[in-house]
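User: Hey, quick favor. My workstation is busy. Could you predict this chain's structure for me?
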Amino acid sequence: MKQIVFHRRAVKDRRQVPSAILQRIDAALAEYARGPEQARNVRKLKGQDALRLRVGDWRVIFRDGGDEIIVQRIAHRREAYR
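Assistant: No problem, here it is.
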């Protein structure tokens, strides 16, 4: 299983996310960490070396660095790609 590491910006973003959504995000990240081939709603971002995980209206922008997942941003879909 891969280790999940949160960038400083992602830690700040987590404080803004409602707790029910945060539980769903944590579960989806854990599922991806167990096996990327089993994860749903994960796509590569165009023009970037990052992936996005969709959890309802929320997006998690992250990088898969081999043994760890580096979460860079957690945001609502209207703000995630700015």
